[in-house]
Amino acid sequence: MAHDHDHAHEGHHKHDHKHMDFAKMLPYLEQEAELFTPLYRSAATWLREWQPEPEMIVDAGSGPGVISCLLAETFPRSRVVAVDGVEPLLERARERAGRLGVGDRFSTLRAELGDGLGDLEYPADLVWASRSLHHVGDQRATLAGFARALAPGGAVALLEGGLPSRFLPRDFGIGRPGLLARMDVVQEEAFAEMRTELPGAVTETEDWPALLASVGLRHVATRTFLADFPAPVTAEARTFVVSSLTHRRDTIAEGLDADDRATLDRLLDPGDKASVHHRPDVFLLTAHTVHVAVRP
Prior knowledge:
38% of the residues lie in helices and 21% in strands. With 296 residues, the chain is of the alpha/beta class. Helix 2 (26-35) crosses helix 9 (235-252) and helix 3 (37-46) packs across helix 4.
């Protein structure tokens, strides 16, 4: 399990929504998390209101550990455990922790979230789950596992929902206006199909505070954080826009009509001056929502 963007790891991940190979997504996952580090840092700092000095933090569905290490930096007295089911991602997380000087407080645990949080040595004070829960068939049961892993007074911080990313104006001068909105529709349909095909899939209304309450936790706050890179974007943000649109073309292009596919191909053609490689009006704006609940 790894972090994603715009639903299951950016629409979600490569290949198709049914058979995602998160290990192959490693460069993209790191690119996204590193670019959005200011957003995640703001969210982590906000969590101090409920857990000023957690002894142990669990990053549930940690991916390559970018946010895990950020949590270790934000909470310098905490031990952080990165939990994921993909060993190459955990290996990269350990490498990152060592490189950033937090390796003495950092460990990894290989476990699928649907099977619980594995064999933690002692209860967690904070469980962070960033766009990983929706890759599990039975989300309520997984949240119940998070709740059981908490120490009394511990908190779950669930990053789910927000708004789709935007990169261009509604009418950007080529093709039919509204391409990104139409891509969102196709992506939502693919996401719904992916959810139905997960092992043990259970349909849930995505009222995250209510789901957290249903497993015995007390919802205390919800807040949305922005990632805002206005035009003209930095080289790093532009590279991410190219990666993100390439990713969407690889996963959902067959759901678009021929004209939209042709427009998308132009947007991704580095030899076309109208592409996102060169356009001065490219921006990056998205919103991520975090729900916090505590164990009474």
